Structures are given as C-alpha cells and as structure tokens.
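Predict the 3D structure for this chain.
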Amino acid sequence: MKKIIFIISLLILLPNVNYAQVELDYEDDINPYILGDSIDLVFPQLFDFFKSNNEHPAANIQLALIFEGRYRNAHPISDYDAAITNAERAKLFFGRARDLIDEREVRRNAWYYSNFTNQFKRNGKPEVEFDSVRLVHEKGLKEADSFLTYMPPIHQNFMKMVEQYDLASKNFVRINGGYNSLKDIYLLYDDKLNKRFDLVKNSYDSTLFYFKKYKETVKDYPPFTLNQQLTFKDIQTYRLDGLVIQTDFLVDEIELWDYTAWVNQVQNLIETEIDQLRKDITQIESKLESSFLKMDNWVPNDSIDVDPIEKKSIYKIRKYDLNSPVANVFQYKDDKLDLINEQKSLAVYDTAEEISFQVKLYTINRVFQQTIALENELKKYNNEIEISNLNKNKDFYEEYYGGIDEFKNYFKSEEGELLKIRSETANRLKSQIIEQIEKPFGQEIPSYRGINFEWQNPENKNDSLSKNIAYINFSKTNVNDLEYFSGYYLNADSIPQAFYGAKNGTKVSWYNAVPSNYKSNKAWQNVAAINVVGGGDLNYLLYESHIDSLDFINHIVISNEKGEIKNDIEIDTQEKPVELIALRNSSLQLALYQGDGLGNAVWPNFITAVKFHPDSADYTIKEIDINGKYEGVFQTDAGIIILSSSEDQQSLNATLLDYEFNPLKKNSFTFSNPFEINYYYQLSEESLHLLSKNGKGHFVFNDDLELRYSDIPILNEGI
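Done. Predicted structure below.
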C-alpha cells in the first residue's frame, strides 16, 4: 500500500509526459545515452521506463542527477518555483537511490554507472566502486535538503523586499497623480495625505528591512552566489524622479529611489515653513482687521498703520501659491486701507482755502486713479478665484470668512465698496473743476467808463438778457497775470455786438468793440471762444452774420496785450466756431467749427478742424467725421481726442486722431438717460472729464478711450 502511495505522489511531482507505450530496455534504449551531453535527451525515455520500472536502481539515481542539475542551474530567484520543484524531485530520487543501490548492484550492473567513474577495463567495462556511487547520492540528498531548507526564507525575504518597494513606488505615483506640484502638496497636506506619506515611508523602510534579512539568510547558505548591493538615488524633481516602477532586482547593484528621504524632506518643510506660514497668515489677518476697525472711526491726523503687511510676507505666500487668493485678499486689504486713508484725508481739502486748486485736484485725482487701479486688481482677483484651489487654506477661510463660499462673496461685495469710494471722489473732482471753471464769473463786477458789466453763464440765451449791458462770457489770464475777457452786449434792437478787453481785478485796462465787416447795426456778432498763448496775446474766434441776409463770416482774430489787432484770418467754412486751443508742443493753434452757420437745422456729424499760426494768414482745413455734436477736445500723447453726443443726448462718441487729423480709434457709449455736457477738463492722460453743470452727467475717460467713470448707467459700449 505504501509503495502505491509513493508512486502516485512521485508521478504527481514528475512532468506529465505522454509517450506511445513501447517496451523499453534500459541497457539498449537508455544506458548508451547516459554519458556525455545526451542525458537530457534520454530523459523522456528514462522517465517512461521508470513508470514501468520504478524500482530500477540506476533509473532512480540517473533521474536524481538530472533533477539535481536542473535545480542547481536554475536562477534561485527568477526560477525559484522550478528550482524548488526540481530540488524536491532530486531529494526524492536520491533517497530512493540510497535504498535501492548496494555493492552487489554496482558490481553486477557496472555498465549502468559508467558516469560515476573515469576508469575502464580493456574490454571497455567501467570500473565502478560502490563508494563513489554512494558518495554521490548521499551528497546529492544532503545538498537538495539544504537547498530546500535555506532557499525558501531567502526567496521569501527577497520577494517581500520587492513587494514593499513596489508598494512604496505605487503610493508615490498615486501622490504624484493627485497633486500637480510640490506646492500643492505643501498647502493641501492633511491627515489623509499624511497617511499616504506614511504608506510610502513605511513600505520603503520595509524594503530596506527585508533586504537586510535577505542578506542575513544568504550568509547562512554559502552555495548562494548572488552578492547584491543597494544604491540610492535622490528624488530631486517632483513628477519626474521616482516614477519608474520597473526596477531590476536581479542585478548586482539594485538602484532604489530614496522615498523615505523625500518624505522626510517634504514633511520637515511642512512642519517648519508651511506651519509657520499658516501662523503668519493668521497674524496678518488680525493686523489688517485691527487697522480697519481703527479706520472706521478715523478723524484727521489719526495715527493708523495703513501698511501693516511686510511685502516679504506676501512674497512668501506667493512662493508656494503664485495666484494665492490669501495673498490677493491681503494685498487688496492693504491697498484698500491706504485708499480709505487717502480718501478720508480729502475732507481737509473741502474747506482749506490755503491749498491751491491744482494741489487739490492733483490729490483728489490721485485717489480717483488709485480707486480705479484697485478696482482692476479686484477684477483680476475675482477671476483668479475661479481657477484657484481654495482647499489649500480651507481652515483659514472657515475661521475668518465663514467658509469658502463666503470668502468668494467677499471679493464680489467689495466691488460695491470701491464704486462708492470712486463715486464720492468723482463728485469731489466735479465740484472742484466746476468751481474753478466758473470762478471768473463769481468775481466782483468790473467797471469802465460807465459801462454796465455783468457775468453771463454760457447757457443763458440772448432773448432772456437785458439790453445795453456788456455780458462777459469768456475769461483767460496770460503769463503776466493780465485777465482777458470777451462778450457781447445787446443794443436796443437785441442785436449782439461783441467786445474784448483786459483787466486787473475789477479795474479794466482797456475795452474794445470788435470791428465789424458789415455796416453799423447790420452785423450779428459772437465771440465763440478765446485763448491765450505765447507771450500773452489774445486769440478769439469771431462769428459775424448779416442781419438782413444769409451772409456770414468766420474770423480768427489775434490781439496783443494792449488790444491792438495783430492778425485777422478769415476762415472759409460754412459752420459756426465752437473751440479754440493751442496745439501741444507746437506754435500752431487749432480752431474747431461745426453745424449749420445759419441755425443748426440738422444735427451735425462732422466737425471742421482749422490749424493755423497766429502770425500768418495761412491755415489748413479738414473735415472730420465725429458722429455727433461736439462736446470737448483733449490733447494727449496718444493724439487729439474729440468727444461728441448723439441727437437724443444718450450716446457719447469718442474719436482719437493724430495731429494730422487722421482717425486712429473710435469708441461710443450709450447711457440710460439723456444728459447735457457743459464743461470739459483735462487732469492727466488718465483723467479726461466731461461734466454737466447741474444734476448727473459726469464722465471720465483715459487716452485709450476707456470710460473710467460715469454717474449715468451705461447700456452698452462699442462702435
């Protein structure tokens, strides 16, 4: 019974070879192939013979030698399973050979053991000693048993080393797949990510532990010839280094990525710089809130820290998050503190008479431009929020803003705050500008040889004015502080007759009626604009029409400081004069004409530009499409900007021209309500103002035709 069980187990261990059942003879069919390199070739026949003759002594030891060669020649790691199987077979057959082979067997069947000796008789029969056969199967049995004893722990430790390194690599790759950069890891590090880091570190440390155990077990088994060592590579570039999972563990020098060193480095930075950064963020927020609380109760000359943030703190935050919403909100609050301080400080300008008009305007305009700049920054911050990972500072948002959604709403709510400051500052600018423009009309009335003078606001109509009074409607002061003025008086027939003069204070130096090109009492005269240039000459645009005909004439008149006419240029145009300015960086001047000279029957779209020199009769003239009625002109580095309005007074058009009056750019704005423009004023390239005297109607442009402010809602923008 035991014999049957043994054979069954043996057949299970041996390969399943299916050969045609023929009766084999060991001496003739197998033994001749035992010597030399033919042993593996005869294995199928030998095994087939064994199945029918399992008690054959020579068959058992020859099979033992074959399986011994196989496990010894197999790679102990990569071919481990096959080596173990063959070692088990070798041990089994060496054991059977020990039980079946004795001296009598060797002496009687010496031909079967010719591969155990180098001695042969003259007739070719091998001289085999039993001891030589015995030594082989005893040694084979011992070595197979040793192999089966020592190799499993060696292989087990080796495979655990490989397994743990594979786990470390895969968890490292998962971290790389979940976080785009090291900075993301720093700012998103939490308990969940910490556990993933621990997995990488623990697996890598286990790799080194099992390699050590592997080397220790190898020492106990000298026949194991692999002498492997570990070399280490630092992970320097995130998402580039450490991602190669296929590591060759069968080479003499096994290269490993040092995952533990990387984990320690990252965790150390988080525990030092990042933890400190979070503390700094909290302190900055507290400082800002303290300054804002003080600013709420601001009074002039209050000592408030309006710059509580060190710039390096902002840089430090952006070092780890370039478009950090936290850095943005701190920068915004810091700038807003400065803005509110400047804006509240403007209160002193409302009543400070000793401060000049230009200083007031400059200071108010600086705050106005500061508000616009901060509004632009706020728009940028709002846009960046949508592409930011707000989980990076989730705890901060929860503590100080009530959560991520509330933090988002903070930036949006600030738009209204800035608009309120901008509106208040714009109103200050408007009141200061209008006060300055209308200042001459608030002076004490001058006197001259019994002539009754009065100041006339430009919007007053002729038929509402009293007769025989000299109405002053323009005033300009030259470099010598001589104030020129011009205007007209109505005679008994309500025909306006123009005049011009000069004064110091209320004392008129001289007063001249404008010479007429028509007979006395036949000319309707109007000085449409005056300008002072050069050494102090007065230039004015004269429009004169004949009261009994459709005839009219446009003149540009140049007078010196004594009222003497130096030049009179007749302009060939059928339009009325609207503006006179000196061209920037030039000795030339610009006169603008628009509308039907006989009454503006049709709403105009074109304007005529006349460029002239005060000392010459020559001029150039060009018609320009400005798409509406003239409202103002500005000179900037970009060129000449002309503003016009639509007939319904709800659209404003801006045209940028070069100094040869070629169009460069246009823009238009449509408003919800009609408006009337009374004045225009240029503070800077970024601050070009159109103003209504009463009610709403204040628009601010820049030299790129961008609307910076409007107190009337805009319906749409663009040509």
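The CA atoms of residues 612 and 619 lie 5 Å apart.
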